[in-house]
C-alpha cells in the first residue's frame, strides 16, 4: 500500500463523492448525521506528513485533527504513529475508515439505493485511544484501502506535542532505540555525589558518532520526554537550546545559567526557584557521577539518548535518589597559645571543626592562610560572631563571658588542598605573629634593573623586626606553579642555604617612612628570579611576603 495526498485538495462536495465512490459512507438513514459529521472532520483536518516529526500546538478544550490515507498497493502495509506530549497529559485517538468491497457501479452515487441494496459499505472504528503524558507508539497493519483520522485534545491548558508517522518501517528509526531494560541504576550515593549507570542503547553500537547520552538533574520530578523537560525549564524562565545536544549548538547563556566544560562533558546549570536544573551531555559513556550536590536532598535523574543528526530522542525510565547527610566533622580542642596546622583535602574532607572554651572574657583568634582558599565561621554558644574568607593573616578579637564555648568551622572553597594555622589565646600582650605592615607586596624598580642586579623594596612597621631575603632562579614555565603552590606558612627552613641573600633589622615610628630597599647583585643576565622576604616577630614565627618574579636585562 502507499500514501495518497490528493484528498487534501478536494472541495467538500468532491470529497463526499470520492468517499462514497470508495464506500466510505453511512449505510443507513439513521446514521446520516454521524456520517456528515465525519466528512466535516475530514474537511477541516490537516494532512499528517509521512516520515517527518510534526510539532502540533493545542489550545485548551479545542480538538485538533490530522489524517492520512493508505491505498491498495501491496498485501500488508505496516505503519506506526508516535505521539510525545511536551507538557500536560493529553487525549488522543485514531479512527479508521476502511472500505469494504461491493458490487455498485463506480459512478453510482445514489446513497439511498446503495444503502438499501448493500452494494457497498464502509467500516468505521476507533482502533486506539490514550490519555496521559507518556510517549506512546501505535503499530498498525492495513490490508485494505483506509483513511485514518487522528484527534488530539488538551483539557488542562494550551500545550504542544510532537507526532511522527511512518509507513516505511524497514529503512531505520527516527528515534534512537532503548535497550530492553531502560532503567537507570543508582550505584553509589554520597553527601554531595550520586553515581548512575544504564544499559547501552543499540543505536550507540550502530551509530556511535551521531548518538550521545544526555542527563537531566532536578529537584522536582522526573520527565517522560526531552521536550517535556525543555518545556518545564522554559516555563521557569530559562532559555534552552532545541535539544540537550549542546555541544553542537553553542548559544548565549542567560544570567541564571552557568556553563561548565570539562573532560569533553558539557554541563548547563539553570538556577530556578525550585532549585538547580542541570543538563549534562557525556558522549557515549553509560556511567556518570553527578558532582556538587547538596547533602540530604532528593534529586531526580533522567537520561535521554539523542540523535545528533535529527535531534530526535528517547527517554530512559527516570529514577531518583536522596544524597546522604554531611557527616559531622571531627572536633579538635584548641588550647591557649597552641598553634594547630589544619590541612583540608578539597575532594574528601571539606570541613574541619575546632572548639575552644574561654577562660578569660577577651579572646584572640589568629588565622594564617598557608595554601588554597578557606572560609572560617566562628560561633559563641551557638550564635555566629564572625564569618568570612581568609586572606593572608587574620585576627579576630572577641569579648564574651567566662566559660563561653567557641566553635570554629573551617571549610575549603576549592577542590585542591588548602591549609591554615590557627591559634586561640587570651594573651594579647604576647602575639603569636609579628606586627604586619599595610601591604605584604614586594616592589621592583624596572629602571634600576641591570644585567647583574635587581632592586626591590617592601614595607616595614613601627616595631623593630628581622627581615630575610631569598632568591631562586626559575624558568618561564615554572612561574605559575611557583606562585600558586607556594606555602605561605613555610619559613626559611624549607629553603636551600644557597638561596639566602641577606637578613636585616629595621623599623620606623613614622609609617610613611617605614620602607626599605635592597639591591641584589651577582645575578645572571636575561634570567628570571623569584624573590621572597620573610618577616620575623618576637615569637620567631615568620610571615612570608608575596613572592615577586623579576627578570634581569639581557644587554646593558
Automatic annotation (TrEMBL):
Keywords: Glycoprotein, Neurogenesis, Repeat, Secreted, Signal. GO terms for molecular function: heparin binding. The keyword Metal-binding does not apply. Residues 1-21 form the signal peptide. One of its GO terms (biological process) is nervous system development. It is found in: Secreted. GO terms for cellular component: extracellular region. It comes from the Eukaryota. InterPro entries: FN3_dom, FN3_sf, Ig-like_fold, NDNF, NDNF_C, NDNF_Fn(III)_1, NDNF_N. Residues 176-313, 434-542 form the Fibronectin type-III domain. Secretory protein that plays a role in various cellular processes. Acts as a chemorepellent acting on gonadotropin-releasing hormone (GnRH) expressing neurons regulating their migration to the hypothalamus. Also promotes neuron migration, growth and survival as well as neurite outgrowth and is involved in the development of the olfactory system. May also act through the regulation of growth factors activity and downstream signaling. Also regulates extracellular matrix assembly and cell adhesiveness. This is Protein NDNF. It comes from Peucedramus taeniatus (Olive warbler).
Amino acid at each position: 500500500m502507499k500514501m495518497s495526498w490528493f484528498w487534501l485538495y478536494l472541495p467538500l462536495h468532491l470529497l463526499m463523492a470520492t468517499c462514497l465512490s470508495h464506500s466510505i459512507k453511512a449505510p443507513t438513514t439513521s446514521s446520516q448525521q454521524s456520517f456528515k459529521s465525519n466528512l466535516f472532520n475530514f474537511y477541516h483536518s490537516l494532512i499528517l506528513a509521512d516520515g517527518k516529526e510534526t510539532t502540533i500546538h493545542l489550545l485548551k478544550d479545542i480538538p485538533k485533527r490530522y489524517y492520512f490515507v493508505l491505498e491498495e498497493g501491496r498485501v500488508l502495509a505496516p505503519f506506526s504513529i508516535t505521539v510525545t506530549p511536551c507538557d500536560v497529559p493529553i487525549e488522543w485517538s485514531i479512527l479508521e475508515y476502511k472500505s469494504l468491497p461491493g458490487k455498485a457501479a463506480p459512478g453510482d452515487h445514489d446513497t439511498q439505493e446503495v444503502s438499501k441494496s448493500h452494494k457497498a459499505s464502509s467500516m468505521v472504528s476507533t482502533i486506539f485511544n490514550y490519555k496521559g503524558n507518556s510517549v506512546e507508539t501505535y503499530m498498525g497493519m492495513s490490508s485494505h484501502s483506509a483513511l485514518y483520522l487522528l484527534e488530539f485534545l488538551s483539557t488542562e491548558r494550551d500545550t504542544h506535542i510532537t507526532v511522527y508517522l511512518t509507513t516505511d518501517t524497514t529503512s531505520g528509526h527516527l528515534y534512537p532505540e532503548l535497550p530492553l531494560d531502560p532503567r537507570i541504576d543508582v550505584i553509589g550515593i554520597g553527601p554531595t555525589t550520586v553515581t548512575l549507570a544504564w544499559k547501552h542503547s543499540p543505536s550507540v553500537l550502530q551509530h556511535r558518532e551521531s548518538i550521545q547520552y544526555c542527563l537531566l538533574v532536578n529537584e522536582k520530578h522526573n520527565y517522560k520526554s526531552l521536550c517535556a523537560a525543555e518545556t518545564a525549564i522554559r516555563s521557569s524562565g530559562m532559555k534552552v537550546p532545541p535539544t540537550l545536544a549542546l555541544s553542537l549548538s553553542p548559544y548565549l547563556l542567560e544570567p541564571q545559567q552557568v556553563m561548565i566544560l570539562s573532560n569533553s562533558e558539557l554541563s548547563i546549570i539553570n538556577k530556578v526557584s525550585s532549585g538547580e536544573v542541570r543538563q549534562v551531555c557525556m558522549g557515549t559513556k553509560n556511567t556518570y557521577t553527578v558532582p556538587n550536590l547538596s547533602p540530604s536532598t532528593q534529586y531526580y535523574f533522567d537520561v535521554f539518548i539523542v540523535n545528533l543528526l535529527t535531534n530526535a530522542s528517547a527517554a530512559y525510565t527516570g529514577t531518583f535518589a536522596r544524597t546522604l547527610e554531611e557527616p559531622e566533622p571531627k572536633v579538635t580542642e584548641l588550647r591557649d597559645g597552641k598553634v594547630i596546622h589544619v590541612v583540608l583535602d578539597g575532594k574528601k574532607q571539606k570541613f574541619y571543626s575546632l572548639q575552644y572554651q574561654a577562660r578569660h572574657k577577651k579572646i584572640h583568634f589568629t588565622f594564617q592562610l598557608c595554601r588554597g582558599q578557606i572560609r572560617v565561621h566562628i560561633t559563641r554558644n551557638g550564635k555566629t560572631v564572625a564569618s568570612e574568607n581568609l586572606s593572608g593573616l587574620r585576627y579576630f578579637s572577641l569579648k564574651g563571658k567566662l566559660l563561653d564555648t567557641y566553635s570554629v568551622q573551617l571549610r575549603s572553597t576549592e577542590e585542591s588542598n588548602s591549609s591554615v594555622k590557627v591559634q586561640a589565646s587570651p594573651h594579647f600582650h604576647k602575639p603569636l605573629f609579628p606586627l604586619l605592615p599595610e601591604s605584604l607586596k614586594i616592589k621592583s624598580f624596572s629602571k634600576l634593573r641591570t644585567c647583574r642586579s635587581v632592586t626591590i623594596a617592601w614595607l616595614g612597621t613601627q616595631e623593630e623586626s628581622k627581615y630575610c631575603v631569598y632568591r631562586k632562579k626559575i624558568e618561564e614555565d615554572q612561574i605559575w606553579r611557583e606562585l600558586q603552590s607556594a606555602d605561605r606558612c613555610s619559613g626559611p627552613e624549607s629553603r636551600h642555604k644557597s638561596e639566602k641573600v641577606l637578613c636585616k633589622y629595621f623599623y620606623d615610628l613614622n609609617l610613611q617612612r617605614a620602607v626599605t630597599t635592597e639591591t641584589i647583585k651577582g645575578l645572571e643576565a636575561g634570567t628570571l628570579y623569584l624573590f621572597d622576604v620573610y618577616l620575623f616577630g618576637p615569637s620567631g614565627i615568620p610571615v612570608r611576603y608575596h613572592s615577586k618574579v623579576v627578570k634581569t636585562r639581557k644587554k646593558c
